[in-house]
């Protein structure tokens, strides 16, 4: 099993000076196949929409890093690990700046970037960046259009949602076109995955929050819709996030990972241990244990 892990971008371990670089370097040496980030701009004290399973926001989200800075740091200190995001709230970013940033990280990593996008769910975050939350879906569609142009043409021009790119030379290109994975369980989000994405970004939690057939049934529907859209359904990848909830024992995490990977057969899997570790040392120790236990099956 090729298993990845979240970089320390959330929680107490994230506050360690130099911690992202150290974790990325040592986790890859230990056998991590991927290094992943999530995206959280704000942790409101009284959120309009609480984090799922909480009345407010988890304490781990009080300490957060910029996901792109984390990926750039990881790119500089690693050689082989996939550098992924699950999930960047893409419609909260200015598209031209985001396109340039993604391209730079892919070039710096020698083609290891796997950008995973979603539209977010926090009204406070959209208010903080001055973007209407009601526009999030069409802004993501627009970003996907722009990335096709930015990565595919040397002369770029684009009329976007609230911005215009005049004809411009854009000759820095990714090492290879990064595969774009999209998140979402809603009908519109699933249709976007089927029609436009290179892969889907489901999430699983330990202990289990719902039956595994929720994921397998959803994936089957997405792939059927992809075939209806004239695409190869089996070419649609899966990058599975596994969230280890507070207090979960490491052997339970490993056992659940083995079972859900055998059931869903994702092409990428990563474990987020942010809720279990207070330091980079502890996070590295847990990472080593999960790698060892999952290798045993």
From TrEMBL:
Residues 5-258 form the Luciferase-like domain. Keywords: Oxidoreductase. It is an enzyme of class 1 (oxidoreductase). Its EC number is 1.-.-.-. InterPro entries: Diverse_substr_monoxygenases (IPR051260), Lucif-like_OxRdtase_Rv2161c (IPR019921), Luciferase-like_dom (IPR011251), Luciferase-like_sf (IPR036661). The keyword Ribonucleoprotein does not apply. One of its GO terms (molecular function) is oxidoreductase activity. Gene3D superfamilies: Luciferase-like domain. The keyword Cell wall biogenesis/degradation does not apply. NCBIfam families: F420_Rv2161c. PANTHER family: ALKANESULFONATE MONOOXYGENASE-RELATED (PTHR30011), CONSERVED PROTEIN (PTHR30011:SF32). This is TIGR03619 family F420-dependent LLM class oxidoreductase.
């Amino acid at each position: 099993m090729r298993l990845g892990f979240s970089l320390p971008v959330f929680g107490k371990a994230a506050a360690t000076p130099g911690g992202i670089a150290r974790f990325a370097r040592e986790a890859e040496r230990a056998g991590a196949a991927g290094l992943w980030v999530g995206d959280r701009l704000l942790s409101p004290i009284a959120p309009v929409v609480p984090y799922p399973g909480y009345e407010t926001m988890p304490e781990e989200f009080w300490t957060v890093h910029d996901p792109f800075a984390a990926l750039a740091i990881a790119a500089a200190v690693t050689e082989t690990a996939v550098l992924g995001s699950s999930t960047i709230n893409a419609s909260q970013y200015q598209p031209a700046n985001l396109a340039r940033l993604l391209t730079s990280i892919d070039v710096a990593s020698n083609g290891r970037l796997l950008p995973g996008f979603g539209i977010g769910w926090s009204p406070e975050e959209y208010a903080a960046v001055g973007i209407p939350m009601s526009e999030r879906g069409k802004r993501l569609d627009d970003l996907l259009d722009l990335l096709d142009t930015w990565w595919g043409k040397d002369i770029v021009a684009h009329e976007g949602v609230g911005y215009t790119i005049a004809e411009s030379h854009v000759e820095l290109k990714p090492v290879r076109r990064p595969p774009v994975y999209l998140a979402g369980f809603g009908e519109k989000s699933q249709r976007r995955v089927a029609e436009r994405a290179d892969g889907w970004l489901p999430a699983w939690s330990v202990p289990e929050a719902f039956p595994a057939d929720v994921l397998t049934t959803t994936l089957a529907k997405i792939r059927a819709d992809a075939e209806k859209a004239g695409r190869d359904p089996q070419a649609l990848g899966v990058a599975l996030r596994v969230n280890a909830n507070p207090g979960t024992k490491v052997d339970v995490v490993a056992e659940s990972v083995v079972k859900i990977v055998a059931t869903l057969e994702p092409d990428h899997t990563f474990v987020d241990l942010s809720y279990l570790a207070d330091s980079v040392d502890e996070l590295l120790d847990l990472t080593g244990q999960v790698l060892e236990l999952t290798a045993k099956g």
